[in-house]
Amino acid sequence: MPKARSSLTLSDVAREAKVSVTTASRALNGLAEKYRISPSTAQLVRESAEKLGFRPSQVARSLRLKRTGLLGIVVPDLSNAFFSSIARSVTVSAESDGFSAILADSGGEVEKEKDLIEQLLARSVEALVVCPVGQTFQHLESVHQQGLPLVVVDRCQAESEMIQVTSDHIAGTRQAIKLLLENGHRRIGVLQGLTGTLPCDERLQAVSDSLAAAGIRLDSSMVDGDRFTYESGYRSATNLLTRHSDISALFAMSTPNAFGAYQAAIELGLRVPEDLSLVCFDDVAYADFMQVPLTTVSQDVPELGRLAASLVAEQLANGNCPTQKLHRVPVTLHTRSSVGKMSPS
Amino acid sequence: MPKARSSLTLSDVAREAKVSVTTASRALNGLAEKYRISPSTAQLVRESAEKLGFRPSQVARSLRLKRTGLLGIVVPDLSNAFFSSIARSVTVSAESDGFSAILADSGGEVEKEKDLIEQLLARSVEALVVCPVGQTFQHLESVHQQGLPLVVVDRCQAESEMIQVTSDHIAGTRQAIKLLLENGHRRIGVLQGLTGTLPCDERLQAVSDSLAAAGIRLDSSMVDGDRFTYESGYRSATNLLTRHSDISALFAMSTPNAFGAYQAAIELGLRVPEDLSLVCFDDVAYADFMQVPLTTVSQDVPELGRLAASLVAEQLANGNCPTQKLHRVPVTLHTRSSVGKMSPS
DNA sequence: ATGAAAGCGCTAACAT
DNA sequence: ATGTTAGCGCTTTCAT
């Protein structure tokens, strides 16, 4: 298996096979028939390439063909299971289409995100999948207007011509609140995630609407939190439960939020679900093995990724933009034990 | 913010500024002083570039400079938190060094892994971080011999000149077994992960040695399993516990293995830790909120990634290979509740 | 202080 | 059926 420190070029192969670079190129690219290169010559070229351990330079190819076969993915935090799962779907799908994925981690900072996208464009990626930080979209719109295939995942922009994929936050929230209402809860607190993002805003609105439909007004003092983190959940739950001793249920916008709330509840001497019910968006690994298995609205994360990947592939193949702009992926309510019946008082 | 569909080239900028491409290139690359370009000209070039929204082609640059600023990362499963965490560390560190990371998912298949590495080499990545499937290393050795900076993470190759990073599996296992022995356990079963990989082999050997030091022989009938998965854990635990009713503790090589075992125990009517103790390698999110908080030997995954990244950076900077080949990252025993004292019988 | 021209490795007209 | 040659967009000698 001869594998010399490859700075071998096509002309090395051509020389070895005693043909021109053109012929070598054609033979190696499977264009032998098209250019009626004699089978023996083609074979000879292939053998020479093999023998020398020739590996065509994708860089040179990219420059010449103006196609890099590169796809960019930007996520706020690759160590977060939600985003790494999306990254995986997209990466794997890209690989199977002969693309390579450049992955970039914005660390949740908009400026970094802009920066990374610039870098990716400079590298001539042919498409972009972005899970934006979600509070500003101008730079993304601009990419889209330049005609580069772009798919936005999760933190969408409500009014936009961009192709976007996100969960059905409204339907999910409705199911969760419905469950709470059916169990007799009337005083329901909301643990918010990152405000100003579509998932957060839609969920909050849906809570408000669902409650309103049941004749309950969601007071803003019943809403707290500002991140999808454990800490935010802990803080906001502590605030809410301290402020309103009559809260009987909490709707958390993420699993970390819910665990923060759970911890807060314990510290306040509240039992789940006896004294406090808890529902949350997203899901945990091994939920069934938890002290109190959480009732969750779980997103179909792999499907978000798959859909994003296929929307990219479609644009790459057809060159045109899919007509449907905003894609919603259904969510599923997993009823476990963290929601209890409100004891009649 | 003018951002035309960038197929703008340097010569467009040069024309706009009424200078040669040479001067344009120099001005934009901060070589104005070196080539004594008049400040006004340099400024003019920069403004023209800005005005046109010029973005230099990294592809052309790469071809000319023979430096791509690309780094390849290959992992078996990006949706696995262990690997995504490593991918994150490496990606972030690469970004801060001005590199971009191409991420590839081998799906745990050696052939795919080989394939992906070939592709990455064809793309002229300047360095490679690989979490190999771990059962064959020839292709990696070959890359290393070609002189390309390469760091192998996690599933190392015992005898090798490659730069490798992995946890201190032996020390970790010893601590776990020591804890079990101190609690009076003598009949200890082992739930194996993927056999033939260094983490699995070293851990098994360390169990055997630790037991031997206490005068206990590890019979091969006390070892079962072949994957780091939940299913493997479930199956092997069921086998072991059925075969040997006197087993009082299980050492699991991964958290999924441990949860599989936990499920198996429940189904066999065994309580943890009263009837069966459980320790495992790796860690779970929210371990403290589990029904039975697991005692674990947890790896410092971010550190594995950071170390790998810095070893890559070192090679890239110095051009030479670090002298220390195999790097061990310490692990930590997290004592929680899944290990109980053996009741004197 | 600035430019002309060569060339990185490859593909594709355009010959022959 | 095969070869010559012109570039892709950039950097860099080598001139001036």
Kindly summarize this structure in a few lines.
Two copies of one chain form a homodimer. Chain A has 345 residues and is of the alpha/beta class.
What does this structure look like?
- The structure is a homodimer of 345-residue chains.
- Chain A is α/β, with parallel strands linked by helices.
- Chain A folds into 3 domains: 61 residues, 434 Repressor (Amino-terminal Domain) (Orthogonal Bundle), CATH 1.10.260; 127 residues, Rossmann fold; 131 residues, 3-Layer(aba) Sandwich (Rossmann fold).
- The first copy, chain A, has 12 helices and 12 strands.
- Chain A has a 6-stranded parallel beta sheet, with helices on both faces. A 6-stranded mixed beta sheet of chain A has the order 7-6-8-9-10-12, sandwiched between helices.
- In chain A, helix 1 crosses helix 2, helix 1 crosses helix 3 and helix 2 packs across helix 3.
- The longest helix of chain A has 18 residues.
- In chain A, 49% of the residues are buried.
- The interface between A and B is large, with 56 and 55 residues.
- Chain A binds a DNA duplex (16 and 16 nucleotides) through helix 2 and helix 4.
Compute the gyration radius of chain A: what is it?
Answer: 27 Å
Distance between the termini of chain A: 80 Å
CATH class of the largest domain in chain A: Alpha Beta
Net shape of chain A: elongated
- Assembly of the depicted chains: homodimer
